[in-house]
Design a protein that fits this description.
single chain; 358 residues; alpha/beta; Rossmann fold; 7-stranded parallel β-sheet; 6-stranded parallel β-sheet
């Protein structure tokens, strides 16, 4: 895959949870070379240092004009790196997107609202011969797949990375697991289920929340089967979405039942007591022990608990992990702080057992 240069618009939200698309791309992407982030609030800093204190040589610029005038790098694409309320493209963002087109950058958008549906931007892009990629745009009906049962032709382990809520870091942990297994000498693939996974370069997957409900199971199955037929990996990791009990959009059963997940890695944030953006609603995030029991009812074993440490002191997070490792009898780790390499032996054993039973 030839990587093309891109800048990311975060519009003052780089240092917040709203910038999670940018955060994923800053941490790594095989699809683009990120040469700058546009964020007036963090201008002059390194984007990696703003994210997690790790320098990544990605400068933050105050404006698109600032990047165009001062950077030695040239960009092909401009990516929207923020999640807006309701997935809409507000006027403030439209102004930045027009400026990007004026500077001859093609646009990549993962929001629910499509740039191609905004006449002034779509027309300008067409006039200038620039590309608009609305990642969440649904496939045409003729390109969709019903579930068929072909999932049983895939013999390698399939690990679903689920969470106890949305915006829990499932995609990042999924990438870490793929990288760890590749680093250990195994052929591992990620099945993406969201727009950022595609932006980061995963080859196989679907955008879960843009897929008609009747086709979700089939599209997931099709991605996994195609990955197996083309790549023959030793193991696949499937990025989760939302959570089994999130009332605004429960998800997870398809990963276990339709994608025939061999096992689950569960991600949890102990500091978060209610579902994200649903603090007004009387529903509370389940204790991991209860979520693991529900996952087992669906038919999969949870082999590890991974901890999102947002809004936690590190010592409190480590104490929590130690207690749950003792209570649950499975590894409980902090992926951002410690990596996921200690989980490699679990998946190595799965791979060896799958080859015996082929």
């Amino acid at each position: 895959m030839e990587k093309k240069n891109a800048i990311i618009i975060t519009a003052g939200y780089l240092d917040t949870n709203s910038g999670k698309t940018a955060h994923g791309l800053i941490r790594g992407t095989e699809r683009f070379s990120i040469v700058g982030v546009i964020d007036s609030k963090s201008a002059g800093k390194d984007a990696g240092e703003v994210l997690d204190g790790k320098k990544r040589n990605i400068p933050v610029y105050a404006s698109i004009a600032d990047f165009a005038q001062t950077s030695k790098e040239k960009a092909v694409y401009c990516i929207i790196g923020v999640a807006t309320k309701g997935g809409v493209i507000p006027d403030s963002l439209r102004i930045l997107l027009k400026e990007a087109l004026d500077n001859d950058y093609s646009l990549i958008n993962g929001l629910h609202e499509y740039i191609s549906d905004i006449p002034e931007l779509a027309d300008l892009a067409k006039q200038k011969g620039l590309e608009i990629i609305d990642v969440r745009k649904p496939k045409k009906f003729k390109d969709l797949h019903f579930w068929s049962g072909k999932i049983k032709t895939v013999p390698c382990p399939k690990v679903a990375v689920l969470g106890t809520d949305c915006a829990m870091g499932k995609r990042t942990t999924t990438r870490f697991l793929v990288q760890a297994m590749r680093g250990a000498g195994y052929k591992a693939e990620m099945i993406y289920t969201g727009q950022t996974g595609w932006m980061q370069g995963a080859k196989y997957g679907m955008v879960f929340d843009s897929t008609l409900n009747d086709f979700i199971s089939g599209e997931m199955e099709h991605a996994i089967v195609t990955c197996w037929e083309n790549e023959k990996p030793d193991i696949m990791f499937i990025e989760g979405q939302s959570s089994l009990r999130n009332p605004s959009g429960p998800a997870g059963a398809e990963w276990i039942v339709s994608a025939d997940a061999t096992s689950v890695v569960l991600q949890h944030n102990p500091a978060r007591k209610q579902y994200k953006d649903l603090e007004y609603y009387p529903a509370f995030i389940a204790d991991p022990k209860d979520e693991i029991a529900l996952i087992k009812m669906y038919g999969a074993e949870t082999v590890a608990l991974t901890i999102n440490t947002a809004k936690m002191e590190e010592k409190a997070a480590r104490d929590y992990a130690a207690q749950y490792e003792k209570d649950l009898g499975i590894p409980c780790i902090l992926p951002l702080e410690d990596g996921v390499e200690q989980l490699v032996p679990i998946f190595k054993k799965m791979i060896e057992e799958s080859k015996i039973t082929k």
